[in-house]
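Submission sheet (multi-component)
Chains listed below:
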Amino acid sequence: MLFDANARLGNAPSRQDGEPSGTEDIIALMDAFNVKKAVVYHAVAQFSDIMLGNSLLARETGGSDRFLLQWAVLPPLWELYPRPCEWIKMMRENGVVSVRIFPKQYGHSLRRYAAAELFDALGEAGMPVFVEYSELRDADALYDLCRDYPETNFVLCSPGYRCLRQIVPIMDSCDNLYMETSNLFMHNGLAEFCRYQGAGRLLFGSGMPTASLAAAASQLLLSDLSRAEKEAVASGNLKKLLGEAYL
Amino acid sequence: MIGDNVLSGEPFRGVDIFDIHAHIHQTSDFQMLDTTPDDVVKTMDALGISGACVSSITSIHSDCRLGNELMLDAVKRHSGRLYGYVVVSPHDTDVDLSRYFEYPGILGLKVHAAFHRTTIDDPGYIPFWEFADGRSLPVLFHAWEAADSVCIAKLAERYRCAKFIIGHGAVRIKEVRREAVNAVRRFENVWADTTISLSPDGTIEDAAAKLGADRLCYGSDIPFYDCRHVLGKVATSRLSDAEKEKILGQNARRILFQNE
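Outcome: structure written.
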């Protein structure tokens, strides 16, 4: 059984031919590949309006227990957005147990002078922060993020098949960094990664709808990982990170 | 049904899988894993892949002739599992291609114009097109841009006996795919492969619908990419078993082995 750590609902500015659209398509794919639950954020929160996008999640998932809602968040700016403590309260009231940031898309700093209140509060609340590699300036920015906020867990999403030389040293240095597997498509990458780094910080993810659940699931299920390693990557690590109680 | 094994993690059985777009060796650009011919064959064994036609990344990224020699050695050592493309470069036209084709496991030419810092319409390639045309050989292209497929269509029109395979193009972004589809639909001597690192679910079905299952071939780009992900996408797609069999192996064998 799989838990998908990285899926998106809603409409992005563009889509590819054949790409699934809508919550029903996503659920059909989840059913086909035995995905019990998926962490989902909303395209509107990514590309236009963070508060609107977050609110759309609940509406479009209709309270389904197949989805683990993930809100996008921003560092404080005047009174334009909730203070981090207010945001966390709202998220708890709405069953949200993880957040996602888009520092490149939204053009905000990750440094302590700008974001300490946000990331420290999320760390204290035990809410992991998901971020795509393409949203970061470079690997050094990821390293700085993990080191600047050591009490906060970060999940690097869609790291890409070219990432090993950048990411492995950071994972060696930073216990608070996890990696999601969509687009981690180097040959035998999962097996070699687990061999050297252990399976404890890899989270299965699809990257739907722009990436393929079929591809991600096939890579994991057909890999040379042991049964225990497959279970950890497939769902166990995400359950631990988010807290079993919420799942 | 083909693909039912994926959920249980079992290898493929009872279906002939032939990878029309594979490599051996490595590049300095990023860290690749398990890149030797032995590594590639080991993965093929683990998954139930019958054969793969490979080119050397050394040929593409640095020394064309050295890589081709290493490829030839690998094909000889893994006879019946690995087959070979000779990489050709317009910067090195003084090469005796016929020598490679004395060995039956060498099946075609591979063109990666971008890494050779040129384009497919470079006149330096003309002797190679003529060679392929004269022997009815397949030519596999790295076709990442829409313009690549436009060039390939022109070649297909001129060199009717050669067989042109558009690598990547049919499963890339919309505008690239459009030109790849145009080329395949216009000319009977053009095919496309499934090789891509990142594309949505539904891509394979969409490509098969637009090209026809007879004109799409399974290719993985191993060891740049893990072959499992595209293999799984094809095998678990909503296509019929008959269509999957064509894409996974039958089409490749028809294109590559016609001359044997």
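Remark: Chain A touches chain B through 42 residues (CB under 8 Å).
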